[in-house]
Design a protein that fits this description.
8% strand; mainly alpha; 80 residues
Length: 80
């Protein structure tokens, strides 16, 4: 990540690499996709707390939360 003038540039290759590792770990440790999504939601909360402590504000935080909640709701509906 590169910070400049309150903006953030993310390295896509690194994000993909980390994302693949997280996905493999979640598949190995979680009993199903729904549990994995709740683990991600809890992790997101903990990371958000860390970001807030560092004084960084996310402009689209509400949108990200809504999208994640929608994904979890869809997964639950599909499993029933």
């Amino acid at each position: 990540m590169d910070y400049k003038d309150n903006s953030m540039n993310l390295e896509i290759g690194n994000l993909q690499n980390v994302g693949c590792k997280v996905t493999k770990l979640l598949r190995k440790k979680c009993k199903d996709g729904i549990e994995a999504m709740y683990v991600l939601k809890a992790t997101l909360y903990l990371l958000r707390c860390s970001i807030i402590e560092d004084g960084i504000v996310l402009g689209n935080e509400a949108k990200l939360d809504a999208e994640l909640a929608h994904m979890i709701d869809e997964a639950i509906d599909e499993s029933n």
